[in-house]
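Need tokens for this chain, all 166 residues.
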Amino acid sequence: MTALEQLQGNLPPPEILWWPPAPGWWALALLLACLPWLAVWAWRKRPKKLRPRAKKVGQPLDALQLAALRELQQLPLPDESTSAGPWLQALNQLLKRVCLVRYPEAQCQTLSGRTWLLFLDGRCTAAGLSRFMVLVEGQYRPEVHLPLATSNRLRQAVDTWIRQHV
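Here are the structure tokens for all 166 residues:
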């Protein structure tokens, strides 16, 4: 019996060791350790149109809102004897221009009727513009006469929408 044969008999059977793991396991461990950081980074880098924008009460108005409110105040309220059609058309144009600047991806210039009012209410429920179907229908009627109280409520609703839409 040679010395090599004597040594072979005394060796314990080979054991499978769990440590250190293969290189692929190290890469997986590194990926799992970086996953929370990557999630935060992706959240911050997403496009602005997908970010929820919380509008706080009392937050200062931006330039677009100030210009729209100024234009709204310059529109003369129709009295009960004159047709409100041009005034309603001017309100719609003002709202569409604000939406085109604020929500360019929404294709809001193609909306009309009930879908237009629902779009506006989706951006600011406090205004309640869906109650004023006359806003979208009245501009197409030859003669629309609104009571002064209705005109005031509609102007106030548009003012609220401009101030608080998100």
